[in-house]
Each structure stands twice: as C-alpha cells, then as structure tokens.
Amino acid sequence: MAGALAHRQFQHQPPSSFSRLLLLLTLLPLTLASIAFVLQWRGGVTDPLTRWSPDQPQFPGMSFADSTPSRRTYDCTNPLSQSLNPSFPYFRDWNFDFSPHLSPKICVTTSTSAGLEQTLPWIFYHKVIGVSSFLLFVEGKAALPNVTRVLESIPGVKVVFRTRELEEQQAKSRIWNETWLASFFYKPCNYELFVKQSLNMEMAIVMARDSGMDWIIHLDTDELMHPAGTPEYSLRQLLADVPGNVDMVIFPNYESSVERDDIREPFSEFCNGKFVLQGLSGLPGMALFTSEVEENDSRSEQIMCCVFLTSVPLMTVSMFKKNYDHLPKDVYFGNYKESTRGNPNYFLTYGNGKSAARIQDHLRPNGAHRWHNYMKTPKEIKLEEAAVLHYTYTKFSDLTSRRDRCGCKPTKEDVKRCFMLDFDRSAFIIASTATEEEMLQWYRERIVWTDKALNIRLIRKGILTRIYAPMIIIQSLRESGVFSSVIAKATQTNLSKEKFLKSVDSSNSTRNSRSDMFSSRKFDAGRLSQATGRRILKVIDDSLPSAIPPLSPPNYDHADLIT
C-alpha cells in the first residue's frame, strides 16, 4: 500500500532540470538546421550574382559544369580562340586599363620577334598581376602590320619599330663609347641580340620615366613573372613592399621542365580532339580527361589530360626546376648529377635571373639581366619566394628556330663566338647536323622529363616544383574570349577574323622588310620593412661595373667556394 502510494507520487513529480536541459539540447540543433534551410532556400528567386554571366547562371570565377559525364568539343586549331564554356565571361570586353592612381606603376620592356600566339597571353597575364605599361621593340613576325595592329590597340602597350630613325638614334648612344658592354660588340647571334637588348633597354628607361612609371623590368616573351610571397599574387604589391632605399630587386629564375615532346603552346596548351569527362574521385575540383588525338599526330596515340579548377589542362608546362638561390646548398649539390641528366649545367640556359629597377636619375642597363647606375652602386635585394619562370626549349621546333636565326658554322670552335652558354652551343650543332629523327631523340633525352619516378623523387627533395597559377590565369583569359575579342576589334575594319588568323599563321617565317634592312650596328664577323623581410634572401652590396651576361648556375667546381 505504501509502495503504491510512493509510486504515484513519483509519477506526478515535475520534470527535473536535467530533463529540461536534455530537451533543449535536442531541439536546438533541429531549430538551427530548420532556420538555415529556410535562409538558403530562394524559392525560385533569381540570384543577383548570376548577372555576372551574360550566357548562363554561374558564380564569378566558376565554370558551369554538368555533374554527369558529357562530351565537349574544343576548337584546337587556334590557341587564342574562345572556349565554349568561358570561366570568366565578364572579362570578355575588359581591356585591363587600370586606374592611373594605382601605385607603384610597373613597366615591362622586351625585344621580340614573336607572334600573337605568344605575345597576347604574355601581355595580358602580366596585366592581371599588376603591370601597367609595355614597351615592345618589335621586328620579324612581331613587326608585321596585322600583328602590330592588334598590339597597338591594347591599352598600355607601346610598339617601337626597328626603323632607320631608331638605328640612327641608337648609333649615337653613349654605350658605344663605354667599356661595360664593349666585349659584346661586333659579334654575331646571341652577342648581337644582347647588345640590341641593351640599347633598347636604354631607350625604354627614358620612355618609361616620361610616362610616369616607378619600376622597369626587362623580360623576354618566353618568361613570366611569378610573384609568389604575396596573398594577392600581385607583382604590384610585391614591389610596393620594397623599402624606398632599395634600387633593384633580383628575381631568381626557375626553368621549365617539359614532360612531352609535342607541346605547341607552353603557357596554356589544351588537348586536341574531343574531351571525355570521367570525373576523378578523391580530388576536389579536378577531373580526368581522355583525348582522341588528331590522326595526323605521329608521335602520340592518346593523351591523358588532367584538368584543374576551370577546365585547365595540366598537360601544359607546370613543372619547373628551382633556382640555386632558393635551395639549400646540400640539396642542390647532393642532387646535381640527377638534376643535370647529362647536360652541361644544372639549367639548360641561364641561371642568374632577371631584375626590376626603380626608375631614377642616371639609371642604365647592365645587360639584359641587370640594371646599374652611372653615379652610384645600386642597393639590391634578392627575393626568396618570387621568381621568373623561364619557358626555354619547351617546343621541339625551338631547336630549328634558333638554328635558323644564326649563320654560324656548326663546329665547336665557331659556336663559341655565337652563343654564350654550353647547351645553346650543343643544341645548335645538333639542329644543324642531325636528321629530324635524330634531333627528336636528342630532344627527348636531354630536355623532356619522361622518367616519372625521377620527377617525383626530385619534387620531394625540392629540386622540381609544380606551379599552376600562370597556366590557370592564361587559360581562363583565353576561355573568356579576351584574346579573340582583342583580335576581332583590331581587325574588324580591315580583315575578317578568319582571314586575319590565316594571315598570321601563313606569316610564321616571314620577316618585316624594315627589320631586314636594319639591324643594330651590322656585325662583320638600409632598414627593411617587415613585409619585405619575409621574402628577402639577402642584401647585395657588390658593385657590378660590367654588363652581366646570361650565366649558368654553380656546378661541382664551385661547391667548395660557396659559403
């Protein structure tokens, strides 16, 4: 009786505080989940962000992709053509004409004979990372009317032709009466180009200063700046952090390490034929493509393309060999033999980087790789993360194109007066004496990195590295129609786009008459800011009175001399 009474009393007791707490913890997540669902549900209302795309609803910077396997067909005949699915469609009519108030203002100058397939990606990539002005000293293919018409239509681009007036003006340069460049005078091929680049750089300094530029950089059109070390991937931000007492910034170069022998466009090549999307599990944002290669491709039956983010093929050049300055000494010399693979040096070509100079009084070039000052020894810093990416010998045709530009005899003695670097000399001899099959075999053995086990081992040790940013930027610009729209606008009053592109292709080996007539002097035979301190490798105080030629990286003979 008493037990039954106690049981009824327990049943009528109010819930304890623990029970209420347990109920609250149960209901709270459910309530929050419901609120989140309601907030995310748009009920068919158009998202304002879709207005970025004129073609289809997609978020800026994202490509529209179906989740189911599908086939896509790309126009692979023209490397500047627009993709069917633009990644950045709102770039289409953007000329990158930056505000004049942005600072610092950066000028890039070059001496080039390259066509639009190389110069357009090169220009717009550097515009994206913050370059304001371009001074292009053109000749050969780059000086053709159909090419220069496009180049001159781009805001911030100044084209300088190699005319008789230019030759006469450069013939009066003080450089000819000075000794710092004298050892390069009156020699053919690379020496002649080196002098011509120096004379053009001297003129570029004056032109850049007159246009209000703060920094000047000399690059070739097979080189891309890599402003690593800044969250925005911005060359402008990188130079903005340089202390005011620094006159020159050295960018060590990384050299391309190609993995194929059939590359056509090293900056952002995409596969030929029809792509089949197969979905690559386990790797977010990536997909695996197989390509049915064109029947006329004699060196490959099938190409596997790995696509990163906005359908960018990873088959283009993405592997680079790091500079000695960015490697520990023991790692560099400990892997030197494996890294050279029987070649004369660690790099195929130069290893002493490029530089940016602050525009100021008495500035002068010091060869194609450095700047100097007539009145003082410039204060230099070398960056420990940022670099210049050098796309050298990335195409098999580079062997014959370099051969065709030089009239030297293919002997070991004669090539010394034509080329400064050992590998260039060997490549010229092979290209001049071997059959095409023998050249291809030599190219595969000396230049193409086909040993995947070796590649992975050197990547793990830090010798090789993967860099995708330039490829993604250039491929996105191409897919967005930036290059094709520039060509169309520049040629709409003269040629149709199809006829124009055809004329560019047919003029691949044509030289402008002005360039044939004239050539350079005909040759008969402080305290560092905290932001900068993170990226500076060392401060250089040595005086550099003579022109700095392209130099190879250190070899075993220098191991004991380097501290």
Automatic annotation (TrEMBL):
Transmembrane segments: 21-41
Keyword Membrane listed: yes
Transmembrane among keywords: yes
Highest taxon in the source lineage: Eukaryota
Species, as recorded: Vigna mungo (Black gram)
Name of the featured protein: Glycosyltransferase family 92 protein
Keywords in alphabetical order: Membrane, Transmembrane, Transmembrane helix
Swiss-Prot/TrEMBL GO biological process terms: cellulose biosynthetic process; response to abscisic acid
Phylogenetic lineage: Eukaryota, Viridiplantae, Streptophyta, Embryophyta, Tracheophyta
